[in-house]
Amino acid sequence: MPRNVTSSAPSEPRRRPPTIALLALGAAIVIVGGAVLASGALGPRAASPTPTLAAAVSPSPPSASGSATPTTAPSATAAPVPTPSPTPTPPPVAATTDGVWLPASEAALATRHPVAVMIDDQALARPQSGLASANIVWQAPAEGGIPRYMAIFQTTEAPAVGPVRSSRLYFVAWASEWKATYAHAGGAPNALAYLQANNGKTIYNADEFRWGPYFWRITTRFAPHNLYTSTASLFKLEARLEATAPQTTSPYTFEDDALPALRPVSGSIVVPYLANRISYTYDPATNRYQRAVTGAKVQVDAGTNQPVAPANVVVLFMPVGPLANAPGASTNAEKHRLEVGYVGHGSALVFNDGQVVKAVWTKASMTAPTLLTYASGPQAGQPVPLVRGQIFFQVVATGTTIAYHIGSLPPPPLPGPGRD
Description:
By secondary structure, the chain is of the alpha+beta class. The protein is built from eight helices and 22 strands. The protein has a ten-stranded mixed β-sheet, sandwiched between helices. Strands 13-12-11-22 form a four-stranded antiparallel β-sheet, with no helix packed on it. Strands 1-2 form a two-stranded antiparallel ribbon. The longest helix is centred in the first third of the chain and has 13 residues, at 20-32. The chain starts with 19 loop residues before the first helix and ends in a 14-residue tail after the last strand.
């Protein structure tokens, strides 16, 4: 910014020194009127010899010893060095998966090609690894009433992800929304058929049966609950699969966290499945939903020891039924595999900022994004914004009862000095 420059007041003009002629005249006056000056208004002088008339009229030239003070020529003033303008800081970049702001130096992460991993949710598989670190997590019913997870990673890293389980076509459809590298261990026949036919086109097939070196098994659990991978391994596999195209656009609309004064003081959500029960407790201090599974107080990620606490909980109501009329139909029936109606539209509940929005989900095709819009009111049909942060999609069968509580807003601050 330009600085205000204030000029100082001009100094008094210097008095010109008397000329030689005037000095001579003054000396004569002293000689002629010495008696008067000695007792006159100019007062007594210092004890110095009285100059003679000759000295006054014809002063000696300065001696060669340089007793006279030479006049120094004024030096040149250096031009002021301009202050360099500060380099502007590049603006941050929002991740396409969860909208979190990243510094410009990490812009490549904000559009990095995602990886998706199927994760077990049987009791013997808990606690799982990777769920707290994922940008997006999907959970949906599987056979036996036991749901299954799919964690999507883009900007984040997880040292361990698992236990890795088999694929289901509806999870493949949600991974295809990002053309993700899809990590799994085998799967339902219809899912495997789609992956084989569309590998490298709409999705990248990272089957552990084909890419075993990028996975490992732990010795503290029994199969099939002991298969793991990591984001470092999967991003290396992506490079080998040439799955590196940046994901530059997001299907979601994001907004920043609500101000603390606009957050309810409490809140809760209960999402029931046949084999377990998911509950969320809203924390206004962090504006996050602390997650718990089947009675556990807080779900903790075994890989990082961090609690699972998403910024958004999205409940999607979809048709769920036995998988039929698909490749391997007899096997599907024996294993009680399910199918989910993931294409079309249905109702949804979007929880964030401690509030709830009744919404509509739509998905036009296998690879189209799952969109969220307001169900009614003046904003009907407009996108429902999500808070920047982790998104948990909870898919339940149509007609499932979701119990939730929205707390009251905090009381306004008390009046104090300087406040109205």
